[in-house]
Write a structure and sequence with these properties.
Blueprint (H helix, E strand, L loop, with lengths): L9 H11 L17 H16 L5 E2 L13 H10 L5 E6 L6 H14 L2 E2 L8 E5 L12 E5 L13 H10 L3 H14 L9 E4 L4 E3 L17 E6 L4 E5 L5 E3 L26 E6 L2 E6 L2 H10 L4
């Protein structure tokens, strides 16, 4: 594998321009706008710019203490607060759900400290903070997708020494991941990566796609939107610029497979959506993980 190279050309320029233009307003009143102080935002944004220039590179930053519980996505929250502007329309989801405790708490904190408009409709959102799903509505170049990341390094499962893992990334040495996949297929005839599937970025670095399901992984390939990943406990960020090749690691004789459910959503009746188990009309059933899109289908009474 060739050494990772910086992304150049129109793709990098577009992503960098979009990020640089997210300037902070000067009419601050009361407490700090977007919670973080100016120097913190600038430090995070500098790390994000480096991450965009070198897709997939795990970039360290000075992670701050945030008013959320451990494991509630402090890294994604810091990235959101460092890049949000007054004109943004914000959507926050947790496993595709707009109404979970995690999503509601994050949305209220961001909205209360910025005054930005919020929405549950991904089609009109310009900034989406997500925990482990990509909205199933089509996102465009006007959208920035911020992922909450629990474990940033795909090598963590195989190599516990950070210095050794960094050396392996620098050398493009991902043999341990390939060996792990080989053992999975030899023993179970499938990969045990039900989430956080490792993907190669632009023929260079291999990244963790975070705990999004395999169903969402193909949507990162050549996506028109900018994806930013923030790991607060690990003090690291990385990025996938728009129109970037994202290739799941697979063997030539083993196709990458996404989840299939073999049943329609119990609420809206759609097939081909990512489903999770929940209680529907008093009984366990499979329903759409993307709750906003599911509610819209039910209201329109049209299965699409």
């Amino acid at each position: 594998m060739s050494a990772p190279t910086e992304l150049t050309g129109p793709t990098a320029l577009t992503a960098l321009t979009a990020l640089l233009r997210r300037d902070q307003p000067t009419h601050l009143s009361g407490y700090l706008w977007a919670y973080l102080d100016g120097s913190s935002k600038r430090e995070i944004r500098r790390a994000l710019l480096k991450a965009v220039c070198v897709p997939g590179h795990i970039t360290p930053f000075a992670s701050r203490e945030m008013p959320v519980a451990r494991g509630w996505g402090s890294g994604g929250l810091q990235v959101t607060l460092a890049t949000i502007v007054a004109e943004d329309v914000l959507k926050v989801i947790d496993q595709g759900d707009d109404d979970s405790l995690n999503a509601r708490t994050m949305r209220e904190l961001i909205a209360d400290s910025t005054g930005v408009d919020t929405t549950t409709d991904a089609r009109v959102a310009t900034l989406v903070q997500t925990r482990h799903r990509i909205p199933e509505d089509e996102l465009d170049a006007n959208t920035v997708l911020v992922f909450q990341v629990p474990i940033s390094d795909p090598l963590r499962e195989f190599e516990q020494r950070p210095t050794a893992a960094r050396q392996m990334h620098a050398e493009g040495d991902y043999a341990v991941i390939w060996l792990g996949l080989y053992e999975d297929h030899a023993r179970f005839e499938t990969s045990r990566f039900s989430h956080s599937y490792p993907c190669e970025i632009e023929g260079g670095y291999t990244i963790s796609t975070t705990p999004i399901p395999r169903y969402d992984v193909p949507r990162l390939h050549q996506a028109p939107f900018l994806s930013l990943f923030g790991a607060g406990r690990e003090a690291a960020v990385y990025a996938i610029p728009p129109h970037t090749d994202v290739t799941p690691i697979t063997f030539t004789d083993r196709d990458f497979e996404v989840e299939r459910f073999g049943a329609p959503c119990a609420k809206c009746g759609v097939t081909g959506s990512y489903l999770t188990e929940e209680i529907v009309r008093g009984r366990p059933a499979l329903a759409c993980s993307d709750t906003a899109r599911c509610r819209r289908r039910q209201h329109e009474e049209v299965v699409i």
